[in-house]
Amino acid sequence: MVRHATLFDLDRLVEIKACCFTEDRLSKRSFRHLIPKGHAEVLVAEHGGDVIGNLVILLNKSTALARV
Question: Mean pLDDT, 10 residues at a time, over the chain (68 residues)?
Fold first, then answer.
């Protein structure tokens, strides 16, 4: 299942980034900003109630471009 991330997902999102990336990863503070009020869509993939992945789409309101 794919759904929008919530602040309850913060710890798991940071864990996933730490496992997958050694550099240029989003911090807990960045996720905390992006989830409720940032110019982004933060989605999580769930399986059996566990968050197993995520997708962050950064939006720029001055252009039609986005960054995944």
Answer: 97 94 89 90 96 92 81
Tokens standing for 54? 């995520």
Separation CA 51–CA 7 (nearest Å): 13
Instruction: Look at residues 9, 6, 4, 11 and name the one whose alpha carbon lies nearest to residue 41.
Output: 4
Listed in sequence order, the residues at least 6 apart from 30 whose beta carbon sits closer than 8 Å to its beta carbon are none
**Euclidean distance between CA atoms 26 and 31, whole angstroms:** 7
Q: What is the pTM of this model?
A: 0.86
Q: Which amino acid is at 40?
A: A
54: number of CA atoms within 13 Å, CB side? 28
